[in-house]
Write a structure and sequence with these properties.
Elements (H helix, E strand, L loop, with lengths): L1 E2 L24 H15 L4 E7 L5 H14 L3 E6 L11 H10 L12 H18 L2 E6 L6 H13 L5 E8 L5 H12 L3 E5 L4 H12 L2 E2 L1 H7 L6 H13 L3 E4 L2 E4 L21 H13 L2 E2 L1 H8 L7 H9 L3 E2 L5 E3 L2 H9 L3 H17 L4 H11 L5 H15 L3 H12 L7 H14 L5 H11 L6 H18 L2 H12 L6 H17 L3 H7 L3 H6 L4 H17 L3 H17 L12 H9 L5 H18 L5 H14 L3 H17 L7 H14 L2 H14 L8 H15 L4 H9 L15 H10 L3 H17 L4 H15 L2 H11 L5 H16 L7 H15 L2 H13 L22 H11 L4 H8 L3 H15 L4 H10 L9
Parallel strand pairs: 2-5, 2-6, 3-4, 4-5, 7-9
Antiparallel strand pairs: 1-3, 8-9, 10-12, 11-12
Length: about 950
């Protein structure tokens, strides 16, 4: 793919100077749509136009017209054009075009998954440009675009919908490439304008003929134009063919035929023109048709066994015939229809042999691996070791920016190899691993199942089962992961490093499943060996694993020490940064801190870790960072901000096509909506969480169970305690510690309300175990007092809990204790002492936005004769600036100042994805669609541009 200036490409043929200046004919309706899209973008909001049609129908010509219109209106135009060879190219040509035109060059992320870095870097570049002028991004021949550019085209039009960016794609209607079909689906969902270019009417073809010849076509020539079926490019070629053979005479302003019939130079195919060319030109065109639409003359000469100088007469003849152009550093076919005609006229056996020779020739001179790969695939095999090496390089280069395309290429190459070839299984293992990074998890596991019975060597089977286990763990199916790990460990003669990896993954699986005893048993010598490793990531991973086992045993102090030491080591050993969740030390440290009195430190650690993950391009970790922050904010009673972070977690997972959205994030959203009182939304979130959480015993089971029983309690269905039994019935603290402490009294309250004290007694027993091991944690002491107060109906215990909660930064836990004490006092003869506790609980619930809690407390106060103001419910419909949350209001002055979302994130020291989600909420609440509208509204309402912190 290369940058182009469509103004120099008037009919879609690269460098076709003869056609420059021709009028665009027969596309008035399409021009109206284009003008509307340009006007919409000038108004401040994004738009997308997709131009679809057959080859030669005028897509590129329409894009050239749009380019000129956009430039005249002051647009900054970024234009790229794909080539057939780009289909296996690593990197994004769109990003290269942006960098080359503005001089920016953001360093690539040093990670095996560059999708986040790719999206963020292109977003930043486009937002910066859009601050100065509206932007038009024009991609021609998108059916051949590199996979990374297609990924960007699927994702960024939605992300940048509020910015003045126009996206324009031209794509062939007959393309069968699956990734292009997904681009179509996603853009249709975003509301893209679709322009399907059909055949031109006969009258328009006659106008085109007149434009080319400078005179009106005679009736005879007009009749012949019907043979091109409305295709403007073929019409031009037909007219040019007559002009080239002196078959037309000019008389009285009319062009007419000197003899009847279509000249031999245009029989059925443009390739017929080869008959009049010298042999050197014919051979050059044939080899060029194999090399691609653009090709290097030196490579063509090598394949012909000639010196470049000996081909100059053939080059000149092809240029004079209008079949090639030489406007850039490489020769190019003037239109791909010409190249296809030449290519398809070659016998199949010749074509495949030439593609194989082209792959060899390009590999020798160090051409990009994507070109070599394309030729090998086109040759259809067989493939020698050198070709496999080049293809494997292409696959791995592609995997960082487009893992799904890399997996498809790996499988395609594997299909060219004999069943017993040693490279074939390696390619299939790579394909499964890359598919596991995308939503195509089921395809990855199907590929594993299809490959395992093929009589693999023990080492190959072990690696394949490890990949399968990691995919299952990422998808939340820990039980299936453990099956693969156990079978892999039973294989003989495994290398020590692979066995350690399998054991580490298995130990982590036991932690996920809540079986700490099994995790500790798996650890036999594993941690000790890890501490002797020279790899800092291995040492840090061992520390995190030890911290996890101590934590779930209830040894919070030791767990915290190990988590802090692991996090400190990461700061000095960059190699440890690439551990996967939950082994990222800072992410695990935040989980531990959420259970301690240092809740305020959690926010700082999560912000720093989140931003560092963004800077390093560690996209696969971001959904976990956002979900962890959502949990911490929920613990702090910041419902609105917790919901924003949970939504950001899901949004990033969706953008990056990560296997499954985190059920923890869905559970947080369900719990937030239960507090707000929107039970229908809570039900939707719970349903999604249950879909992605696997069995109830797995890692997110406690969170999903918490949301499930909370919703059942809110709806008054009953039977909640039975749902709690599977997650919280143990007197060991392991499962209880899977959710933060402020939720524990709620578990007891629901169990007691369902007249099943067993779960309540189990929670109390787990709390006694925790306090017996460490009595210094104020939050644990407050929660234990709260639980005792509920179990024993003891007002003194509840009063002790209220005192303990006041300094822990958990307002909703304090509100719950106040409400519980108020309810207990209201049951006595003198109800007056209950009122101040209910009032404090109501004030705390109101401040947190917990409308349902506030409404319940208001009803209780009304029964005691106290009147309070109506509850203000959380709404999603347009409401005005006053409806914005405190976090949303902080963004308004920064938008007015003209800061991009990235700059706002830097100013507020938050994730750019958090800002993106806040902006989406602002637009929804205010009923607007763009930053321009938001700025105008803020200025009208007098919002200060310097009011941000």
């Amino acid at each position: 793919m290369s940058s182009t200036d469509p103004a120099d490409d008037q009919d879609g043929g690269r460098g076709n100077q003869a056609m420059t200046g021709l009028c665009l004919r027969g596309r008035d309706r399409e021009i109206v749509v284009v003008r509307e899209a340009l006007d919409a973008v000038r108004g401040g909001r994004g738009a997308c136009v997709v131009v679809e049609g057959a080859s030669g129908v005028g897509k590129s010509r329409l894009l050239a017209e749009l380019d000129g219109m956009a430039r005249r209106l002051g647009f900054d135009v970024v234009s790229v054009r794909a080539d057939e060879l780009d289909q296996y190219a690593a990197g994004a040509a769109l990003q290269s075009a942006l960098q080359s035109s503005d001089g920016s060059n953001r360093a690539a992320a040093a990670t095996d998954d560059q999708r986040l870095w790719l999206l963020d870097s292109i977003t930043d570049a486009l937002e910066d440009r859009a601050q100065r002028a509206p932007v038009a991004v024009v991609v021609d021949d998108a059916q051949w675009a590199d996979p990374a550019t297609l990924f960007v085209l699927r994702t960024l039009p939605g992300r940048l919908a509020a910015s003045p960016v126009l996206w324009v794609l031209a794509v062939r209607s007959d393309t069968e490439r699956p990734t292009v079909a997904r681009v179509r689906e996603d853009l249709e969902r975003l509301g893209a304008r679709w322009l399907t270019l059909g055949p031109l009417p006969q009258q328009e073809l006659q106008y085109i003929a007149a434009d080319v010849l400078g005179a009106s076509p005679s009736p005879g020539l007009a009749r012949l134009l019907r043979s091109v079926a409305g295709n403007p490019f073929l019409a031009i070629e037909l007219v040019r063919a007559f002009a080239d053979t002196d078959a037309v005479k000019m008389e009285a302003g009319e062009a007419s035929l000197l003899h009847d019939g279509i000249p031999r130079s245009f029989r059925r195919s443009i390739a017929g023109r080869l008959d009049r060319l010298p042999e050197d030109a014919v051979r050059l065109l044939q080899i060029g048709s194999v090399l691609g639409r653009e090709f290097d003359l030196g490579t063509a000469a090598r394949m012909l066994g000639r010196h470049v100088g000996s081909l100059l007469s053939g080059v000149e003849a092809a240029l004079n015939a209008g079949l090639l152009s030489a406007d850039g550093p490489r020769l190019a076919f003037r239109h791909d229809l010409i190249r296809q005609a030449v290519h398809e006229n070659l016998p199949l056996a010749v074509r495949t042999a030439l593609h194989r020779e082209a792959a060899d020739s390009l590999r020798v001179v160090g051409a990009r691996s994507a070109e070599v790969a394309w030729h090998v695939v086109m040759s259809g095999g067989p493939v020698d070791d050198d070709a496999v090496t080049a293809l494997t390089t292409a696959v791995r280069e592609l995997s960082s920016s487009a893992p799904d395309a890399a997996a498809d290429l790996a499988q395609r190459v594997a299909g060219l190899l004999p069943p017993q070839d040693r490279h074939r299984i390696s390619l299939l293992i790579d394909a499964a691993e890359y598919l596991g990074r995308t939503r195509r998890v089921h395809e990855a596991l199907d590929l594993v199942d299809a490959t395992l019975p093929e009589g693999l060597e023990p080492l190959q089977e072990a690696y394949l089962r490890l990949v399968a286990a990691e995919i299952h763990q990422a998808a939340g199916d820990d039980a299936a992961a453990m099956t693969h790990l156990q079978q892999a460990l039973e294989l003989s003669a495994l290398p020590p490093d692979l066995r350690v990896r399998l054991l580490k993954t298995k130990a982590t699986g036991h932690v996920y499943l809540g079986d700490i005893t099994a995790a500790e048993q798996t650890d036999t010598g594993l941690v000790e060996a890890a501490y002797q490793s020279h790899d800092p990531a291995v040492v840090v991973s061992a520390m995190v694993f030890q911290s996890q086992t101590f934590f779930y045993r209830g040894h919070l102090t030791r767990a915290l020490e190990l988590a802090e030491e692991a996090t400190r080591r990461v700061g000095t050993q960059s190699g440890a940064l690439y551990l996967r969740p939950p082994r990222i030390p800072a992410l695990w440290l935040a989980t531990v801190l959420t259970t301690t009195d240092r809740l305020a430190d959690t926010e700082r650690i999560l912000r720093e870790g989140q931003r560092e993950a963004e800077a390093l391009g560690l996209g696969w970790s971001l959904p976990h960072w956002h979900a962890a922050r959502a949990c911490a904010l929920l613990e702090q009673g910041a419902l609105d901000d917790a919901a924003v972070e949970a939504e950001a977690s899901l949004m990033v997972a969706d953008e990056l096509e990560i296997t499954l959205p985190n059920p923890q994030a869905r559970s947080v959203l369900a719990l937030v909506e239960i507090r707000r009182g929107d039970l229908a939304k809570a039900r939707d979130h719970l349903r999604a969480a249950e879909t992605g959480s696997g069995t109830k015993t797995q890692r997110y089971g406690p969170w999903v169970a918490l949301a499930r029983v909370g919703l059942a309690d809110a709806e008054g269905e009953g039977g909640e305690a039975a749902a709690l039994t599977g997650s919280f019935a143990s007197r060991e603290p392991t499962r209880l510690l899977a959710v933060p402490p402020s939720h524990w009294p709620g578990i007891v309250r629901i169990a007691l309300g369902d007249e099943d004290p067993s779960v309540a007694q189990a929670v109390s027993g787990a709390l006694r175990s925790l306090t017996a091991q460490d009595e210094s944690r104020q939050i644990i002491g407050a929660v234990r007092a709260h639980v005792d107060g509920l179990l024993d109906r003891d007002p003194r215990a509840l009063l002790s809990a209220i005192t303990g909660y006041r300094s822990t930064g958990r307002p909703l836990a304090l509100a719950a204790a106040c409400e519980d004490l108020g309810e207990l006092m209201a049951a006595s003869a003198d109800t007056t002492p209950a009122i101040p506790y209910f009032e404090e609980a109501g004030q705390l619930a109101s401040a947190a936005g917990a409308g349902r809690d506030q409404e319940r407390i208001r009803r209780r106060l009304r029964r005691l004769g106290v009147r309070t103001a109506p509850v203000r419910h959380h709404m999603a419909s347009p409401q005005g600036l006053g409806s914005l949350t405190e976090s949303e209001q902080k963004l308004i002055p920064l938008v007015v100042q003209g800061l991009t979302n990235r700059a706002i994130a830097d100013r507020l020291y938050v994730s750019v994805h958090t800002v993106n989600t806040h902006m989406k909420h602002i637009f929804t609440k205010l009923g607007i669609n763009s930053r321009v509208e938001l700025t105008r509204l803020a200025i009208e309402r007098g919002t200060s541009a310097d009011g941000a912190d």
